[in-house]
Fold each of these.
Amino acid sequence: MTDHYAVIGNPIEQSKSPLIHTAYAQATGQDIGYTKLLAPLGGFAAAVGAFRAAGGRGMNVTAPFKLDAFAYATDLAPSAQMAGAVNAMKFEGDKVHAENFDGVGLVRDVVHNLGCPLQGRRVLILGAGGATRGALLPILAQRPAELWIVNRTVAKAQELAQLAGQHQTGSVPVRGGGYADLGTVAFDAVFNATSASLTAELPPLPASAFAPGCLAYELAYGKGLTPFLRLAQQAGVTQLADGVGMLAEQAAEAFEWWRGVRPDTADVIQQLTVPLV
Ligand code: ATR
């Protein structure tokens, strides 16, 4: 019997999740159906309720419903609690299990696919919104030498640094501040988790932040060479990446959580890659 899954959002036409999960199902021999579900604003709970009533087994959640899903869940995983947002749900009877796989997907892409260990490295993350919240604990679990969070609104970065410091299991120094606080400090991996790239803007990052051999990673996907990646390239960074691998890896995490089998992501990443030009 076919098990049904969906991605819910508004808009939803742009979502790559059906393509990704259908590819994973084919590659692993899983009998699933996966559709796009457009819900009206304010209509999240009703749409999910109808999907569950029809036997739906799980869902991915995209904008603008990640907070609605957080409120709707009965069982929030620590990843979702720290992120303050949910991107995957699993339905079991009355229970709604909820996860956020974005951060773990990001780290898997960096360490496993790009071959760039974070352990012992100096890591900088730009932005203090939902994307950063999701990435913090998975990055800290890699035991970097230190982690800096910088944000346009400085207080948000300071709050997040404090929160991450409290929740991490290790003792990685975590520092939060503004772009001006960076001075000439250089990092081995710089992640752009701001939404600046969506409007082709550039966070006020000094080029000196990129250490020789650094990785510059844009969490947004499919935007080509964003202003952030261009800055990195002009600073001499040769390892540039966007969020295509993160997208494929967070989907693989959800797929494994639902189906108990881990798909290989290489083909999907290749298929969805947009050249960084
Ligand atoms: P997301 O869920 O994608 O992280 P968000 O929670 O709205 O989205 O957060 C967006 C982040 O991008 C914020 O950290 C925001 O900075 P502020 O907190 O100061 O608003 C950051 N951001 C957006 N546009 C930016 C820009 N042009 N330059 C620098 N930071 C920017």
Amino acid sequence: MKDHLQTKDWGLGLKGHVIIAGPCSAESPEQIEKVCIEMKKENMIPDMFRAGIWKPRTRPGMFEGIGEDGLKWMEIVRHHLNIPITTEVGNAAHVEMALKHKVDVLWIGARTTVNPFAVQEIADALRGVDIPVMVKNPMNPDLQLWIGALERLHAVGINKLAAIHRGFSDSYDKRFRNKPNWSMPIHLKREWKGMEVINDPSHIVGNREGILETAQRAINFGLDGLMIETHHDPDNAWSDAKQQVTPAALKNILSQIDFKDTLGAENPSEKLKDLRNAIDHLDDQLLDILQERFSLIDQVGVYKREHHLTVFQSDRWKYVMESRTQKGVEKNLSEKFMKELLYCIHEESVKRQEKQLREAAAVKK
Ligand code: PEP
Ligand code: MN
């Protein structure tokens, strides 16, 4: 576990839940101004303003971003809202331009995180610069690639880091534009203590209707903030029109979210402590039972060896799997959980018995 990082001192309110909003792409000075004015009118000022200047598009010929000119329009945001501004960088030239125009926070997009050469190029361009960087998950669900990108940035001295969960490309699951995998940000937080993970429901869902539900799930799982694409006229946006919401709709979404208290869990109440003590006690019992079960497994292994039986016995496995799964489901445990648990236990059992066979064979020799 990496706990040497300082990710809490950005001064951007990450200790609560950070809200990042703004259009998918900067389109014109008028568009940026209209978004800002709407935000002000609705009293929906986010903690940070996002706008894509360089857009990585899957196919050529689509709007690929306004380029450096768009960075000059960020002054409009500063004038109206006076909040930090973030944009996506995909190479060293983008970094140079973003720094020249005093962008406050950078993010690395999903299509860049997959490529260690590109991430390294960005990291090298940032050596010695003190700027927060957010790293979106790669297109494919590869935790190591995501962590690797964060490490490349950390290695050049960037310690104001955060991650963004924007889902993973999955052409078979049509429910999402990019399928969320809630274990992934949790794994990341387990591996890298203090790493804050922001959720981007806009790119996960790909439409307006599902944003609230996905954002709520992210908060339930303990994610630290939300990045939601916001446009004054979403239907006519130059990119990602279907998923952008107006500032008024954003306000409505946020008002319905039940923001959980992540800090409270660090100082548990007596009640929470009691419940956790009871769980600790049960876990001890669970381990005792597992120890006893594996000792029986080892004895069965001896029997199989003496009677020249194979370690894997399909009828027995079928019986164990079906009977336990059914019992588990009756006890309100999900079928998926039961199957995964039984696979895990069975795999360990088979490995132990096969090891016994190898060891006995080695003694004979
Ligand atoms: C974006 O934020 O507009 C974007 C292109 O995101 P992603 O890298 O997640 O596709
Ligand atoms: Mn977008």
